[in-house]
Amino acid sequence: xxxxxxxxxxxxxxxxxxxxxxxxxxxxxxxxxxxxxxxxxxxxxxxxxxxxxxxxxxxxxxxxxxxxxxxxxxxxxxxxxxxxxxxxxxxxxxxxxxxxxxxxxxxxxxxxxxxxxxxxxxxxxxxxxxxxxxxxxxxxxxxxxxxxxxxxxxxxxxxxxxxxxxxxxxxxxxxxxxxxx
Length: 181
Fold this sequence. Notes:
Order of helices and strands: HHHHHHHH
Helix content: 55-70%
Number of helices: 8
Structural class: mainly alpha
Largest sheet: none
């Protein structure tokens, strides 16, 4: 019986050691083939088209509707012609502002990637590149959030409530602004 237990224990130790040698690949495995290592193809497409990419979640989830979704839900929200025209203006202005910011961010990430790929990165160039990237990310997020704020002012309190309902957000939102028609 003791020999059987020793054999079983030895087999378990050997299996554990074999498993440790074949550890799973890094979660980053495969990402080294990306043209811009820090951005997925979807993120690049989203930046180039001015999509929000979740940057405005603090607004969206606290009762500040975004122009894209307001336009998508326009009929169900009962937008009048004046409201629809104003939200379309806001959407166009948002895209005109966010697409160049997205392109700038892609270029900055591409430059940072190139610095590492060519082994030309220095502490000073790294500091400058990451500061520029951070400023672009902040400007992009600020733009998306600002258009949620502007869109809120176009809608009535009832439309804002209905928007949250249609988007599937439970509970009440933090802000129920005065809204205008």
